[in-house]
Design a protein that fits this description.
Length: 327
Amino acid sequence: MMKDRLVRTLAGLALAVTALAAGAQQYPSRPVTMVVPFAAGGPTDIVARSLADAMGRALPGSNFVVDNTGGAGGTLGVSKVARASADGYTLLVHHIGMATSPTLYRKLPYDTLKDFEYVGLINEVAMTLLVKTAMPVKDMKEFLPFLRQNASKISLANAGIGSASHLCGLLFMSAVQTDLVTVPYKGTAPALADLMGGQVDLLCDQTTNTVPQIKSGKVRALAVTTPARLPVLPDLPTLDESGLKGFDVAVWHGLYAPRGTPKPVIDRLVSGLQQSLQDPAIVKRFAELGTEPVPLAKATPEALRTHLTAEIDKWAPLIRKAGTYAD
Ligand code: ASP
């Protein structure tokens, strides 16, 4: 009797495993939604759309579709993925904000380290500090005294608390010991549009969004946020060399799935991610925008988990020192 039941249970288990493996082999068999927690047309969106195209080529069967759920510094989109079915059909492309939000928010509607499966890192990208073209300064040397004299009149755009632009602005204000009026948007695509239109004065944003506008003169770039200059903007000095010693912010992106997504599906996604990062179209597009895919060893679940944890620990004391929180 006992033996019969055991045989039946084992047979059932074997069937379930076979069905799961078959499902993973067929994956994806319907469109996969990649949630971007910011507005369309911005830097996270650009990375996600390039990746979605390449993933569609790497994992034929269906296409990858971007869903922009912006707001609350990216935390709305992240919550959406945390609550989604863990079947591989809802994924998240998010950046450094995944690591800064746990310190910036007293309470988050998701658990950063418990609610997700990790697929891998995608890329790392520098930011640029930009002013509107009507600003009467041409470089950091002129900007810093101007900023101090006009602080109450200068507005700093960002994509909300928890965004990369927010982190950059926070560290910048702390470095120059000046508070500015901040203006939150659902992403830096609309923030950059307002900077070009002259409605806001200052924005720090990934080169993925800013290189074309800098090159066409629609905004004025003052500096890059990494310790080294960028091949794509070789004449632009770093903040570090412009007097803000040690200033160093680089934005990284990762691919996540809801916790409980079956391992065979995650394995397919890792393979799709790794193939995508070698896709010539992505390599070319990223290079034009001042970034490059991570080495393949970093496009793995373990590498993303390790990086995320290290980044949470790295930014927590710096954010506390700069001193802003959200409820
Ligand atoms: N670059 C934005 C940020 O500041 C987000 C975006 O719109 O992609 O985090």
